[in-house]
Structures are given as structure tokens and as C-alpha cells.
Amino acid sequence: MAGAIIENMSTRKLCIVGGILLVFQVIAFLVGGLIAPSPTTAVPYMSVKCIDVRKNHHKTKWLMPWGPNHCKKLKDFDEAVSRQIEANDIVFAVHVPLPTKEMSPWFQFMLFIMQLDIAFKMDNDLKENAEVTLDVSLAYRDDMFSEWEEIAHAIENRKLKCTFSSPKTLESEGRHYDCDFLPFMEIGSVAHKYYLINIRLPVNERKGINVGIGEIKDIRLVGIHQNGGFTKVWFAMKTFLTPSILIIMVWYWRRITLMTRAPVLLEKVIFALGISMTFINIPVEWFSIGFDWTWMLLFGDIRQGIFYAMLLSFWIIFCGEHMMDQNERNQLSGYWKQVGPIAVGSFCLFIFDMCERGVQLKNPFYSIWTTEVGTELAMAFIIVAGICLCLYFLFLCFMVFQVFRNISGKQSSLPAMSKARRLHYEGLIFRFKFLMLITLACAAMTVIFFIVSQVTEGHWKWGDITIQVNSAFFTGIYGMWNLYVFALMFLYAPSHKNYGEDQSNGDLGVNSGEELQLTTTITHVDGPTEVYKLARKEAQE
Asked: Whose C-alpha in 111, 386, 479, 494 is 20 to 30 A from the C-alpha of 209?
């Protein structure tokens, strides 16, 4: 009778916990879908062709496309030919943002891609595998009257990938090639109000610079930055979730330190997962509003990489610790074959990120994909990381298969066991299946929302209500993995309650060798975990 009462109470507790987590999960999605705007905004810019007249005592080297001190402009290149203006004297100028607008630190980053408008001409055809050389400069100022301050200057090369659908005849002259977008620039902070980009296409026929690139008519840029409204919602979520995870983490570790035994491997890994989640949550981005921290994008990548590496390691160790008859347990060294690919893959991705965003800290125009050596190096790192991910997936599937096979064997022999011993094994089985279900649900929701955010237009409109799908994806998935870690620490925290002598090993009739196998996950001597209690593992006579 008492066992049935405890079973009902435990089931009710589990339902309450699951319901509370579900409510918070729905709130996380609704915050992004109904409150936050779209995560990013794309703004097209058309460059203005300016005449560089510094040789005639121009006051500044920065050429403005508009405003009171705008440059001398060219309508098109036909005008340049008629006025005998050389290509080296033409500068493509772009002012960011557009007139009457200002940039803001809430935009967090700026990413620019470039498209060249190249016209076909019989005597100036675009060669195969052509490469354009760009002499680019970036400057900033915080009001409309200050002098421009240089941020970066570089000479970069970009490979042109263009197709021409019409036959290359005289009748086709003037038609434009269909060219791919080119990576242009990325900055990890938006600390200033105004930015100016000057682009030159230096021509040197003797060295073959910018020869055989066709007739470039215009240069277009597309600037992408994070929306300020989304940034504020994102910061608010981080600020709220940081103390939430910190509190449950402190509570979890305090429960462990109250035990008379040392922490077991699974408990240590869960705690490490909580630390990595807290590392992501800490809203250091607030400082980027007042400081020009261009390294925030790289820092964010490193934080995410640490969390994902810990999450993948946790899944492996969780499966291994639930192989109930495995001898080598509670030792990290026993998982080197499975954890090794995670470490190698994470290291490769870290090196790749340092070669890309690490270099961009000094040169925002740099891209590892613009050279053959850089492309091969980047592909090598990505391929090695992909191979490690495949090996990890195979190891994980094999371990999950082993656990389920072990579970099937134990379930067939459960009725013949003593009550206490049977409840021990039922606890292991319940915990594994429960977490596997949550893990699969989280992974499925991540994949589903990612696909939906890619195939939809970015928002759904139901009557007067507009749901931002992409924002809901970011806030919902971010909240979901926080709840996942929260649930892990709550459900796997050992209890500090004192249970009577009647539940000792001797009275339960459990063999000491079998009990030692169970102590890596159950540890009845020091009290059961919350999941153990919720699954009626503490049946009382």
C-alpha cells in the first residue's frame, strides 16, 4: 500500500517537473516569435564612382559618396573614357549606413558581401579563373563633421565565378555576366555611428593585375547586421538564464558534497556540462555596447565549441555508465576511444576559426576561402572534423545499442529478482530511457526548427499576429538546451536524506559485487537521486 502511494506521488512529481519545463520552453519560443524582431537585417548598397584627385592637392584621401564634402562623381565609365580618366584614378565609395541613418553598438557585427556588375565586351572578355585585386580601406567617425579615422587597409584578391548565358557575339555586348557573391568584410563590433569604404581596382598590365576581368560597371555591397531589438531580447534572456543555471549548479554540487563518498564520473560530467552552459550564458556582450570589442564573434564561437564538446562527451559517458554489467566504469580513461574524436574534431574547428576570424581581428577584409592554399587548408580541417563526427556517431550508436541490449536482458530476469534488487535495475532502465527521450526530443526540435527557419520567409502572419520564425528558433533552441542542462542537474542530484538501516545492502539481500556496479549511478548507501525517487525506487515496506 505504501509503495503504491509513493509511486503515485513520484509520478505526480515527475509530471509537475515536466509541465513546468514545458511551460518555460513554450515561453522561450514565444519570446523570440512575438517580442523579438528578425535576428538580422540585410541592407543593399550601391557604390558611387569617385574621381581620385589627390594629385591636384585634394585635402583628404577619403572620398565621400554624398554629403557636403562629397567627391567628384562619374556617371559611368563611358564618361571616364571621354574625360581621359584612368582606371587607377577611380574609387568606388560606400557610406554605411544610408543617408539620415546611424549605426549602433546594438547591431553587434557587420558582414558585407560583394557583387560585381561585369558587362561582356568582345575586346575585354572575362578570362577563365579570373582574379580581381581590390585595394580597400575602411574608416569611421562618430559625427558628420569629424575627420575620418582609418580602421583597416588591405590589398585583397577575389576569384571571379561568373557565367554568361548568351553566345559571346557582337549582339551580346553590354549584357551582364551572372557572378557569384564574393566575401568582402566582417567586423565583430559596431562601435561607431558612421563607416566609409573606399575600393580601388588598381590596373597594372605589366604585372597582370586586374587584367582580363571584363568590363566592371558597378560594385554592389550587401551589409548584414544584427537587429538592435533582437540583441536586447537576446541579452535579456542571457541575463535571466545565467543566475538560473548558476543556482541549480550550486545546489547540485552542494548535494554531491554532502555525500560521504567522492563524486562519481557521471556527476562530474553533468557538473562540467553546467559550467560550460554557464560559460555561454554569462552576458559579457553587455560590455560590447560600451567597448569596441571586435573579438566577440570569435569568443562566442569558442564558448559554443566548449559547450558542444561537453554535450557530446556527456552523451558518450552517460551511455557507458548505464552499461550495468560493464567492469571499467567511473573512469574517464575508459572512454578515450569515444572522447578522442570529439577532442580532435573540436581542435580542428578551433584552428579553422582562428585562421578565419582570428586573422579578421587585424584585417576585416581577409577570408580564408579566397586563396587555393587557404581553401585546401580550410577544407582539410572541416573534413577531419567531419570524419571525427562520423566516428563519434558510430561509437554513440554502438553504445546505445549495447545499453538497450543489456536492458532487454535485465528486463527478462527482473521478475525473478528480489524486490530491492529489481527496483535498482528498474531505476537504471528508467533513467536511461527518460533521458534518451528528452535528448531525442531536443535534437529533433533543433533540426526541425532549423529546417523551418531556412525554408520559410522568416515570419508567419496569422491575422494581426506576426511570428518571427527565425527569432523563435534562436531563443527557443537556446532556452531548450538551458532547460535540458537544468533538468539533468535537478534529476541526477543525489539526495541528502537519511534512509533507515532496513535499506542497507545486507537487509536488501543485494550481493556486494552487484551493489558496487550500481554505485556509479544509484548509490543507495548515500541516498538515491531525484529521478530514482520519482521512479519509485525508494519503495518502503
From this structure: 111
